[in-house]
Amino acid sequence: MCFVNCHFAAHAEAVARRNGDFDHVYRSMTFTRASTFSNVSVHLLLSKCSVEQIYVMTYDVLVGTDKYLFSQSAEVMPELSEADLVIFLGDFNYRLDDITFDEARDFVSQRSFDWLREKDQLRIEMAAGNVFQGMREAVVKFPPTYKFERHQAGLAGYDSGEKKRIPAWCDRILYRDSRSAPDSECSLKCPVVSSIVRYESCMDVTDSDHKPVRCMFNVDIARVDESVRRQEFGEVVAQNERVKSMLKGLLMIPETIVSTNNIILQNQDTSILRITNKSGKHDALFQIICQGVSMIKDDGQALNHHPRGSFGFPQWLRVCPVSGIIEPEHTTEVSVHHEKFQTLEEFVDGVPQNSWCEDNRDKEVVLEVRVSSSYMTETRNHRIRVRHCFSSKGKQVDLISLDPKQAQINLLHRSDLQRLSDSYDMVDHFRNLHSP
């Protein structure tokens, strides 16, 4: 629904200018379009599509293949012609032709409005198709609303000055609903049907040289029965194999692999974790979180696991990036870096001397790589153990605590790093990397 308040050109002889004012307003007014998915909903409701076609079109929009719908929302702005109900109101300034001031006063006093309406410029121009095309007005049964002396009540208040402007119905309310014929009934194809309950002027208002006009509408609006629509959509999903296949594809989490499940870092060391999207069709969304931190005993076993909750990564570990989108058959590289923030001399017996320092014992964190699709919130997770072995003398990392096979296959050292192409097979890479 759209309400348009207008003030058109004045003076009795400016009929063409008034017609031009309306044409300019109607053709040039555009509005900001809502979001793309709102546009899709409107398009689906108003288009003559079967339920199956609606499902197919919705799928196409989600996966970005329906260029037609997206180009519409990107380039075309809604106009007044797209509204189901348009109401124009205001001072349109159309006057009475071929009548004198005294003649008009006499007909008004006799309430002979039928004869006066035949002189109305607006009715004449609408009948000729020059203005307000396709719009309607209720029958005018009130006196002309212009021009009155201010603060003077009754019909005696018409302009009695030197100019003696001829009374006229300058102030009007016109409308257009969804009907293409007068007997059209309200339906989804004709969503708005209106009728006039009351159309009158406010003759008691005296603080203006115009009399306000008011109109009461009765509006019937069609609506979609959501329960019926859901039932029909459910039947389509249950019976149509093509739609079922499309929806199944949307609900799949892309297959991903990670280059290692164990990373060992020395002071200020950096390792690269590679995440590969094995899917050939769908993007993979990933997010990396820290599940918790553990201290490492002398025998290499982890103890005192402390969940991190919402506190992010520990101060000594930097992971970048922590989230992103991996295109089909592509690989992204994540830097896992140890950040040096203290020296051994600032600790006594493993206890930090400043309250803001962390312990200097060997530590282990568990990183969780959460992978999801663009269309669902469920995730498939990979767990990565990152261990920092503290050494003030730069001693070598002791790998005894790790499974020898894991140490051979999963551990990535800086010297092992090489840039992989998007289509490189990660399994073949590790076989070649550690073969004799």
From TrEMBL:
Q: What is this protein called?
A: Inositol polyphosphate-related phosphatase domain-containing protein
In which domain of life is the source organism classified? Eukaryota
Q: Where is the Inositol polyphosphate-related phosphatase domain?
A: 4-225
Gene Ontology terms describing biological process:
phosphatidylinositol dephosphorylation
Family stated for the protein in its record = Belongs to the inositol polyphosphate 5-phosphatase family.
What SMART domains does the entry give?
Answer: IPPc (SM00128)
Which species does this protein come from? Eucalyptus grandis
Q: Which GO terms describe its molecular function?
A: phosphatase activity
